[in-house]
Structure formats: C-alpha cells, structure tokens
What does this fold into?
Amino acid sequence: MTVGHGVAALLAAAGLLVSAVPAAQAAPAADPAASSVVPGEETATPALVTGLDEAATGTGSATDAARGHLKAKSSRYHIADADKNLVAAGTETEGGRETVRLQQKYKGVPVLGGQYVVRMDKKDGKRTVTGTSGKYFTRLKLDTVEPTVSEKTAVERAVGAVMSQLGQGPLRAPEKNSGALKKSSGQKPALTGSAEGLAVLPQGEGVLTRQITVTGVSPVDGQPVKQNVYVDAHSGFPVLQYSAIKTFGATGTGVAAGTGATAAGPEAVSTAAAQELVVKGTGKRYDGKSVELNLYRGTDGELQTIDYGFRGATTPNSGPLLATYDARGREAGTASGVWPSGIKTFRPQSTELGEEYTDSGAVDAHWGAHQVYDYYKSNFGRKGLDDNDGFINSLVGVVNGGLPFNNAFWDGQKMVYGQGGGDYRTFSADTDVVGHEMTHGVVEHSAGLVYAGQSGAMNEAIADYFGNAIDLTANHISMDDPDAALLGEDLCTTAGPRECALRDLDDGATTSKNFIGVSYRGDSGGVHLNSTIFSGALWDIRQDLDPAFADKIIYRALTGYMTPLDGFTEGRAAVLAAAEELGATKAQMKVVKRSFDAHGIVPGWEKALGVDTDTLLGKNNVSGTGIGAAGGVYVASRSNEDGSEPYSVWAGNTDGSGKPRLISGNNGNYNVYASTDGKNVAWAEFASDAVRFHVRPLKGGVDKLVGGIGANVSALKIDGDYLIYTAMDPYLHNPHVGYINIKTGDTGMVDNGQYQFATTLASVRDGKIAYAKMWPESDGYKLGVEVFDTATKKKTLMPVDKENTVGIGQTALTDDGVFWVEDSDGEDAGQAAVRRAATDGSNPAEVLPEAGPSALYAYELTASDDAVTVLSLPPATDWSNDTLPKLYQVAPDGKGAVQRVSCNRGDQVYPTADTGTRVLWIDGTTGYTNLVKRDRPAGKC
It folds into this structure.
C-alpha cells in the first residue's frame, strides 16, 4: 500500500508519512495532449477526458446537464445513479464556458476528495461537453453508514489525538501564572472539538468516519490550531488529521470570505448611492510609496477601512466588501477559526492615514486586498475569493504569547497577518504575502486542494505563483527583475531581498534532488518543503510564455481541471490540458511540457528516490502508531494493501530474515501502539466504548486481555511483567502514565491521575518505570525525571535542575540506568542535553552537552545497552532537508564521536533501539511509509 499524493497520502493515522506514489499504479499515463482519456487509479472512472465535442443532454441547469452527460456515457464513466451519488459543489462560468463540480456521496455520506468536474461550452442556449476530470471512487462497498462511536467519544479522541501530535516532543511547563493545570469549573481547555458529520475515506472499499474540527491554541507553543480530524466511526480511532490553516511561512497554523463577519458598513449602506460608499484616502506603504485607499464613513461619522470600490453605480447594494480589521495585540490563537470578540475596522481620524497605519500594516493589507480582488476580476472575471462576492476580511497585527508573530495565514474564513517584530515587518508589508493568503481562499473555493502531502504542496505552489504574479502586476515589476521570483523578500527590516525571502520560485528544485517525504508532524506532509518543485515549473512557464497567457493557463487548470486529492502528476496533466484548451500552439505546448520535465515532474519520477537503509516493511500505510523492537524482533501496526482495513499488529525479525507474522488478529477495531520485550507483544485495541490492552507471547499462545481505559491512549510499552501506557485527561488533556502488572493484575498511575500533575514519555525495565514529570510548586511548575519502583512503590527524582529546566524529553532505561533529554536553556532555540543517572539518582553523567560543537537539538531518544540514538529536530525558519528530524548515535558514556545513523534525506521518526547499535525507524525519504533499519551508524553525511 502506498500512501501517496492522491488518496492514500491522507488516509492513514496522524503522523503518517506522505507517499509520492499513487496506490496500485498502472503504467504512466500519457500527457493529455496525446490521449483523450487518462484512466483513473483505484477506480473505473477516468481521471481526465479531453477533446470531447458531445452535446449535453437536458435543458435544465448546468449541474443537470453535467450529470446527464455522465449518465448518458455510463460505459465511459462507470458512475451509477449520478443523480443520487453526485451533488452540486459549485459552477463557475467564464464567457461561454461552464465548469461544474460534483461532490461524490456514498449512501448519502460525502466522500473525502471524491469530486468530479464536467467542462462545457454554452452557446445559443445549447451545451457541449468538452471534457471531464477528477476522482470518483467506484470501489466503495460499505455495508452500513451508521456509526457505532458516539459524537462525544469521537470528539474526545480527536482532541486527544491532536494533543498527542502537538506534544510528541519534550514535556514543557506552562508560563508562570498562566493558570494551566488549575482545575476550575470556569476554565476552558486549550483545544475543543466540534462534530462536522460523517465522511467516507476512499481507501479500498471505504472507511466510514466522523469528521471533527479541533480548534484552539497549542499548549506547547501557543500557536493557533485548527485541525481536520477523521475518527473511524466504528472503533473510534483517529485515522487521519491535517491542518486547516494555510500559513505563509514554515511555522504557525490558520476563516472563508463571506461568513458572518460584520462591520458598521453593511447595515448602513442599504439605500446609499454607490458613489457615496467610497471615501478616497491616502496612506504610505512600508516601502514609502503613497497609495490611494478606498475608505467608508459610517453613520457615526467615523472613517473605516472598508472598501466598497468595486460596487457599481447601478448596484450599490450588492458586490464585494473588503474590510481590514485592527487586531493588534490579539493572540493569533483567538483569530484561528473564530472571530475575535470586539475587534473593529481601523478608524483613521483623517483621509490621510498617518505613520501608525503604515507601521501597523493596515495600509499594505487594505491596499493589497484591493489589488488582489482587482487582479482576479480583471483577468478572469472572478468575483472575489468565493466567486460570489462574499466578504473579504483581513485581520492585522496578531501576536503569539504577547510576542511578534512572524507569519500570516488563511484559516478558511479570513486572512490573518502577524504583527512582526525584530527582523521582520508586519507580514502584510509584502504584496506577495497578501496575494498568497488570499489565493488560498481562491483555491479553497475552486479545486479545494487538501492541505497535506502533494495536494497541499500544490495548494502552496499555486498560492505562491499567483501571489508573485499579483505582486509584480500591482507594483509594476518586470519578470526580468532579478528578484521577481522571490516571496517575502520585502518583509525584513535590515536584510536584503535574497537574504530575507522565504521562498524562491527560481530555486531549481526538482523531484529527484529535492523532493522529501515528510510526516504530518512537520509541515503537513511537506506542503511548503516540496512546493517549489511544482511552483518552479509554473514560474518557468510564466517566464517563457507571455505572462498573461501563462496566468490564464494556470487559473484554468486550477478552476477547471484540478480536484482535491490531485498530486504533481495530475497537476501536470491539468496544466497541459488547460493550455491545449486555451489554444496553445505546438511551440507553447512544448514550453509547458519542458517546464515540468525540468523539475522532474514526469511519469514514474517517484522511482528515482534512493536510501542507505534496509527496508523491513515497505510501503507500510501507518506510522503514527509507533513501532517497537527488542531481542531481534520488531512489532508494528499494519493495514491491508489498500489501507481500508483497520490496523492489526505484525511482528518480524529485525535482521530482515523470515516473513512478518500476524499477532493481533483482525477484529474490526484498530490495534495500535505495539511494543515488545523480545518475549511478549503488547498493544492497544481502540473500540467504540474503551481502549483495551492486550498481551500475547511472540512464540504463539493466548491473546490475553489485561485491562482497559476509557480515555485516549498515546503510547504503550512492555517489559517482563509490566505493561505501561500514557493516557490523556479527557478534560484538561494532561498526560498520565499508568501501569498494569500482567501477572498479578495490580494497576495504578504513577501520579495517581491527579490533575495538577503531568507524566509522560515513559520507559520500563525490571519493574522500574521512568518518566518525565511536571508538578506545581509555590513559584510555578517544575520539570524533572522520576523513577517509580513498582515493588516498593518508592518514587525517586533524578538530579535535574528543576529551577532552570524548561523541557524534559523521552526517557530510556538500560543496564546503565535511566537516560533522558534535558533542556535547561530556553534561549538556545531548542538545543538540549542528553543525561543519565542510576535509577536511585546516583552517578549522574552528561552523555551529550546542551552547548558546544557536539550539541544536538535533541527531541527524542531511544537506547540499548550499547548505544543511545537521538532524534535531532532543528528549529525551522524555512523548510529544507537540514531542518527535518535526523538520527544520531553515541556511546552510553558519551565518549567517542557523535555519528549520523543514516544519510537518507527526508523524515527519520519514531526510532526504536534493538540490540547493539541496531536501530529501526519510520523513514519518509522515498515518499513511502517505510519501516527501515541500520545495524551501525553511517558516520558522517
């Protein structure tokens, strides 16, 4: 099973590694110019049909005509009951062209990414079908679409899953006086979930899920959170999550034009003439240029940053409203997916907006929104982001924890711009940022490219392309300008354009040299990291063709051909088909093909990605459930080839010999978080009413149910008689480590489950449990490492500087004692030490320092008796191979060189030590979810 750019990349557990390769891939499809029908993958319905000239049946709406065509040509499309299984998802008209989008439903339930497009020409009241494209999944076969899991349980587990993903790294204490961990009836949890209904994930015969939206503020770093989570409707396991916030930069997270935002303007203008709606003002942008701004004077006499300038004199009561809101000092998390209470549009005292409005970013944001609307209207006849003149709202000046928020995002309803600070100006200061974020709104209301994996990278690429095109158009910059391809180049206070730019569309990125498979833990599966591969090809087209014609091609590909789960290969086909439809000459078609070829976006490109590791489970379709290893044996969760089957636990030999064998059986629930001590295997079974713990001997024998819990579980380990697990408090979402004595049935929690404590990142050996701990003292929360002796019930704190430590990472127990990650300097951007001590706290030692040439950005560790393996995760101000998680290995005493475990590019996550220096992990380099291993370090890379 591949977890690729199309369907399966999105349809496995949170933490999934994104695959480049579509499942069940057939022979590479020809470019659309060479063939009128491109077959679909995992479906009998074609992915792309071009060159048609067929009369549409019926005389009703465009939607009726589109469905009638699909029904009449059922031998081509294989879509049964089109009237029932395809519902209207929007129609765009441009001149005589009509583009109808149809959403697939299965037994009345929407299918994620199931969207089909019918293109028609209309003349003299008659319609002609010219082509179709998209994904309609013909293999779906669910017995029922009635959920077993309640909404309440689904919400709790979705929130728990997001918390687990956010909290994968070191345990960190909240700020003093923040109120975190204080139990009171009035306290709101950091994250909340809301049920959005049912959805079918199109894996194999289909997976029925409850769709949950989780919003709030990350308790780890204060970033805004809005996650789409899909919870299996029968077992309650969260099988997929990805961000609904589209950010400009590498960090941060992100409402849709026209949803409920009100200003004084809308009520006040119902009878006004159009010319009375617009008050002309002026202001200076950050670059010092004076620009004209459209303002509005409310019934209270105050000027407001509301732009009614696109409303016609004959239609003053309809048309777009562009409003710019003063959100200075508001936390970014309060502006993500919600409308911050009490904010107003900027209210200048004069039509000449002074320095305050320049420095705040209000002038650039308001002027920029006008330019973006004008660009789409003038060039493509598009009426705003939703093509229906819905309100366009911009919030300017948000912060993060009271500090500058150096980012911008679109969250499905509005644009939000960070205040900036230090090296950065307010993020609305560059027109390409404004164009980028607003284009996310256009993408959402057209192709709807899902913001994960390759479809997410294309979402980013198109936002970058049009963001830059709008920037050059609005600022009268030539394509020949040496900085024309840069994005964000004007955001810096001191650095020059090339040093400042966050991305360069002329960076020459290709699939063979630069594509990196990356987990949903980072960058939503590579949405920024891999975007310039695709945007670079688009930008080459713009450089080598007439820019206006190139823009029309890319816009037509987006709005007329692309669908939500498209990847790079489908993107290429869409652009080529759009170019052909718009009358590109042979020479121009050659330019378009050459541009994609130059960036390695060609059929079969995925096969060129190599590794220096041994693959134990290739093309595995889960990774977020972790892996375990001990005594020459590994255990991991796995699904069937098409990914539709709930996960079961498999075991194999870490030397690669033999075949994997099924351990858990397949009972319709999700069997996850497998662990082994070399003799037994333990795992968690997610069911609709509880999470149950199982233990089974590796050599065969009875599957023993040893306990269960109603809360969400995020980790599990076994050693000898003890099974330990990490459960999330269902209200405050604090983690707690629990234990079960398999032999005696003795159970408990190391912190007694008390709300004021947090325990996590646990390990177990010889009846002792080590874990990271957070507890309250009179002057704030403290962090440390504690060892709990299950025999004596004694707890021993390890020698950690509790006054200065700001983070504690994963623990590991070996014959040398307990190892852990410790961050004692909050100013070093995340560098952390690796320390160890005997389990009674004696003989403390530093394995790796926090500072100096051998220091790492230690994020996680695993250890055998012979080696310590550290996952290093550098801070990311941009996305590159150097900022992805990499593995390093060192001797337990810290002596000798620190060596790279593998030189693979791409994510190296979920490491687990076996015997000696052998280590296993989930690797994303090839774009697949691969379980790999190395027996010894690679050394230097």
